[in-house]
TrEMBL record, chain A:
Protein name: Probable chemoreceptor glutamine deamidase CheD
Biological process, per Gene Ontology: chemotaxis
E.C. designation(s): 3.5.1.44
Organism expressing this protein natively: Tindallia magadiensis
Key words of the record: Chemotaxis, Hydrolase
Role of this protein: Probably deamidates glutamine residues to glutamate on methyl-accepting chemotaxis receptors (MCPs), playing an important role in chemotaxis.
Gene: cheD
EC class of the enzyme, as a word: hydrolase
PROSITE patterns from the UniProt entry: PROKAR_LIPOPROTEIN
Similarity annotation: Belongs to the CheD family.
Keyword Hydrolase: yes
Superkingdom of the organism of origin: Bacteria
GO terms assigned for molecular function: protein-glutamine glutaminase activity
Catalysed conversion reaction: L-glutaminyl-[protein] + H2O = L-glutamyl-[protein] + NH4(+)
TrEMBL record, chain B:
Annotated keywords: Chemotaxis, Hydrolase
Keyword Protease: no
Entry-linked InterPro entries: CheC (IPR007597), CheC-like_sf (IPR028976), CheZ_family_phosphatases (IPR050992)
Name this polypeptide is given: Chemotaxis protein CheC
Amino acid sequence: MQDIIKVGMADLKVVKSPHILTTLGLGSCVGIAVYDLNNQIAGLAHIMLPDSTQIKNNANKAKFADTAMEVLLEELKKQGANDRKLTAKIAGGAQMFALDNKSDMMKIGARNAQATKKILNDYKIPLLAEDTGGNFGRTIEVYPDTGILLVKAIGKGKTEL
Amino acid sequence: MNLSVNDLNSMHLDVLKEIGNIGAGNAATSLAVMIQKKVDMQVPVVKILDVQDVPMVLGGEENIVAGIYFGMTGEIEGNIMVLLDMPSARKLTNFMMGGLSETSCEDDLSQLNDMEKSALQEIGNILSGSYVSSLASLTNLRVELTTPSLCVDMAGAILSVPAIQFGTISDCVLMIENTLFDGHQEMKANFFLIPDENSFDVLLQSLGVSG
């Protein structure tokens, strides 16, 4: 039986094949999928902000790119993943609204994507594919057996990464 | 002292509800003038929701909704978002355009033409303008709105914007739910008031309910 495990906003989960992970309606948040294909284990973090050290209210580790990655890697290892064989795919980081003001907050999607890439690089996890930016929402599905990241957007159909 | 949404007590909520009430009253009046119909409203409901739960209130993360987003500048800085479900957005645009809205087909609610988009932005203007003017008059603070930005997409994606902005100070968002009636049809408009971290204190202080 295949379960579809839902990952909410500021949340992260790890599953083994045949189960899959999904997160619905990603906007400016970024979905970070990390795979160990040999062991068919994958994890998904749905982060909202780039950096926990900039924010006072940082108790929820899954909310930030930096701390979410730490916890995600721990969870992957606990489930038996080999941390030297990990690969990643990311999606999200859109700018849903276009306002003229130069507020940093409006560019949060791009900053989330950028921070995520930097952290993957720091951990030496290869980023195999990404679908980031734009001004639209995305629903994603993570398949631990094939390493596929399925991206769905309104009016744009499905894309396999 | 820094207050966050989590620290709001029932008195704070009453004040915010009152702003919502006056704002919705003004909004209903302006809408009625615009569409030349009688518009009634219910007492607004102020909700403090966990970010995880907000999309459920709006029919799930993948439900398509229309968000109209404004920047607030002046003595209170931040953002305000008006969120309409598609049936409500459709009814309101139809009223505004005197029934001339083209894409009235119920099964293709996400496709809006430019006229309809512009009508929706105008509706957002009326609703949020009424809120902000009631906020300004109750607090004696100067608040201005930027021009609106419209986005029709999945509820989860649209809500990520206020959720992230609240996310820097809290894990909850403040939502004011309004129900409008034109006599036989019901329309729902949700407001998200998103003051910047410092403006939240300014707002509560000027209302005399700080701490």
